[in-house]
Amino acid sequence: MVKLSELQKFLVDKAIIFPTAEMYGSFAGFFDYGPLGVEMKRAVKNEWWNHFVRGRSDTVGMDGSIITHPKVWEASGHVDAFHDPLVECKKCKTRTRADHLIEDRLKITAEGMELKDVATLIREHDLTCPKCGSHDLIDPRYFELMFSTEVGAVEGNIAYLRPETAQLIFVDFPRIYKASRGSLPFGIAQIGKAFRNEISPRNFVFRAREFEQMEIEYFFNPETRIELKPNDTKVNVLTRDAQDKGESHTPLKISSLVNFTSEWHVYWISEVWNFLMKIGLRPENLRLRQHTKEELSHYAQDTWDVDYLFPFGWKEMIGMANRSDFDLKQHAKHSGDELKVLDGDKKIYPWVMEPSFGVDRLIMALLSDAWYIDKDSKDKRQVLRLNPKIAPIQIGVFPLVNKEGMDTAAWEIYLELSKHFRAFYDSKGSIGRRYRRQDSIGTPYCITIDGDTLKDKTVTLRERDSMDQKRIKIRSIGTKISESF
Ligand code: ATP
Questions:
Q1: pLDDT-based confidence at 309, cuts 50/70/90?
Q2: Which CATH number fits domain 393-483: 3.30.70.360, 3.40.50.800, 3.40.50.1000, 3.50.50.100?
Q3: How far, in Å, are 232, 289, 303, 371, 482 from residue 236 at the CA level?
Q4: In a mutational test of the pocket of ligand 1, which residue from 100, 164, 316, 360 has the highest number of ligand atoms less than 8 Å from its CB?
Q5: Is it true that domain 4-67+166-369 has CATH number 3.30.930.10?
Q6: Where in the chain is the domain with CATH 3.30.930.10?
Q7: Which residues surround ligand 1 with Cβ inside 6 Å?
Q8: 71-93 pLDDT per residue, tens
């Protein structure tokens, strides 16, 4: 598996993802995406949108505001309870997330633990400062995670930058549901930035202060049964019970998860899994983990994460919470609006299933999954084996030499291909080098235009993973590439 430092160096060197404002010493927890990174990010978001919004007749999209009415976060519970336990070193003043300190040192899950229990564990195990090793730690306290700002010319008019996209969906639900002439089940999806003032951002974009989410709130009537299609796919599963007994994950069929959670939850686990397979993640690096009773959020009936085996261990990539009717009831209470909907002849508060994807974590997982060094090749060829759907560049177009009409023919082909694919034109350096450069950034196909192209309208198509080279007609290039998607 790729090391984090190796992956990070590669991403920064190629300007795929890198710390923001490097010339001013960068800014912890904030990152920029360069030309290749932004193409990949857009591709991932488009695949997701096409799959979950355009590909479903029961789900619509929206795009809400980032700076949000403060009442939204009072109703949702964020103002009172969106905080992490912070522990500070008396000696070097380093501030650390206390539950992460416990998890790192004692190898137990501490997320959601009461502050007094966190303090007891730190004291009993005499945990030390991760930076200077001092035993002198100030008792943990809560640290608020929402970024606030002032709005308009009136001082003290505080508003928050959204820490999740979800709440915007709840407050817009009545208008969107009505305008869409919705009926249950009904999904609203959103892709956008979220902001959390993380105590210790780390592991590159995995834990950032500004990141992007892709979320669906799927409103349903819990009294209505959903017909589950049998799904015999076996996936790594770590149930709540298994964690309580200190066991590790085991392969289980997706259908069999009805023994551990609701059918609606199994339905969404299966939908999310299908998407992850579609964009090419390797199942052996994924596991489903059910939240323990202690870590369940105040709003959740049950939550399952999709964890990925990151270079720094199994960590959450996607959260799938059953939020029940918590949010709509809260907003009804705080706004005074009627937020029930008619289902059959009954007015109800719908329940909500929430698949919540972190775009940056997903991209990091896709990149570490695709990372491959071909040890058998003389120059230890480095390849990013990304699925063609999400590769930043899908086809490289090269004239063998930059003259004798090959350059103009190649340019014309490039212009045509770039109407349909993410294409890249390169006429510099040896062909071998040009292939290697594209391999390293994940380009699945390259074509070379040579002297014969001008005579018989064929090109050499070279495939990234097998390195096979085939002669094909210019007019069949598009079909050939699309077939591999
Ligand atoms: P964690 O326990 O790792 O802090 P979380 O449980 O607070 O994550 P959620 O509130 O469930 O995360 O957010 C949904 C998704 O948003 C996560 O699965 C993750 O992919 C992404 N996400 C959350 N916080 C961050 C962050 N600081 N940086 C990057 N992505 C994040």
A1: very high
A2: 3.40.50.800
A3: 13, 9, 16, 22, 31
A4: 316
A5: yes
A6: 4-67+166-369
A7: 111, 164, 196, 198, 207-208, 211, 213, 316-319, 356, 358, 360-361
A8: 999 999 999 989 999 999 999 99
